[in-house]
Amino acid sequence: MDMPTAPADALHTVPAFPFEYKLPAGKTALVIIDMQRDFIEPGGFGASLGNDVSRLIPAIAPISMLLEAWRARGWPVVHTREAHKPDLSDCPPAKRDRGSPSLRIGEPGPMGRLLISGEPGVDIIPELYPVAGELVLDKPGKGAFYATGLGDWLKARDITHLIFTGVTTEVCVQTSMREANDRGYDCLIVEDGTESYFPEYKAAALEMLTAQGGIIGWRCDSKTLLASL
After folding, report:
1. CA torsion angle for 30, 181, 178, 10 (degrees, to 10)?
2. Looking at 34, 38, 138, 192, which residue is catalytic?
3. Which pTM does this prediction carry?
4. φ, ψ for residue 96 (rounded to 5)?
5. Are 95 and 122 within 8 A, CB to CB?
6. DSSP symbol at 23
7. For each of the chain's 229 residues, which pLDDT tens digit applies?
8. SS3 label, residue 216
9. Which of 38, 123, 138, 172 is catalytic?
10. Degrees (nearest 5) of the Cα angle 94, 138, 55?
11. Catalytic residue check, 192
12. Is the separation of the CB atoms in 35 and 67 below 8 Å?
């Protein structure tokens, strides 16, 4: 869609909670956490844990609108995928052996070996598929900064602000946002651009991240954010 082009140094004011979020054009990356088939489609890792994967679907449309807006402006976009090496050398037993899922990490499922790099299930869903120039990171942990090159990539581009979306709110999204906060980034989470298998966990995570005057960051919905650009 056609959008007006703001100056590269424009500062946008977003009516967010707990107070206004100042978003600098060109220095704000859209971070899309783990919108991959293994979590969102039937037969993947999320389903193997007994989750209702349909609960993640509502996040797709808001993220898609934000992604379109970022692409139209030429702003930076980051996609992450939770994925491990085929030999599982970066997957500690404490992670793989936990609980009693129907399938464990690395075992074959309908979309290939679960959470293994290069397998169909690890790929980003078609609605949000990356394009040339967007960063795609495979991360072995919950956080986007752990054992990845994200920090260096952001520094090289002088990025100071991060907009967080993706799944699941209380696990990989929250962990990544907390990591970013510790590294000095001003972070905003998009309320309808993130989802959880457990709605009560999403609500609690949003409250925790923005409590005490925005202790980790800000939050608002996608329509508010888009209207502010």
Report:
1. -20
2. 34
3. 0.95
4. -70, -35
5. no
6. E
7. 444 455 657 999 999 999 999 999 999 999 999 999 999 999 999 999 999 999 999 999 999 999 999 999 999 999 999 999 999 999 999 999 999 999 999 999 999 999 999 999 999 999 999 999 999 999 999 999 999 999 999 999 999 999 999 999 999 999 999 999 999 999 999 999 999 999 999 999 999 999 999 999 999 999 999 999 9
8. coil
9. 172
10. 75
11. no
12. no
C-beta of residue 122 within 8 angstroms of C-beta of residue 138: yes
Q: How far is CA 189 from CA 4, 16, 59, 172, 180, in A?
A: 24, 10, 12, 12, 12
| Residue 200 CB-density burial (10 A; 0-12 exposed, 13-18 middle, 19+ buried) | exposed
| Token pair in block for residue 172 | 């990989």
Whose tokens are 């608002």? That residue is 220
Q: Is there a catalytic annotation at residue 172? A: yes
Beta bridge partners of 23: 12
Q: Which of 38, 123, 139, 192 is catalytic?
A: 139
Q: How far apart are CA 228 and CA 133, in angstroms?
A: 25
Please say if 142 is a catalytic residue.
no
- For residue 159, the Cα-to-chain-centroid distance in whole angstroms is 17
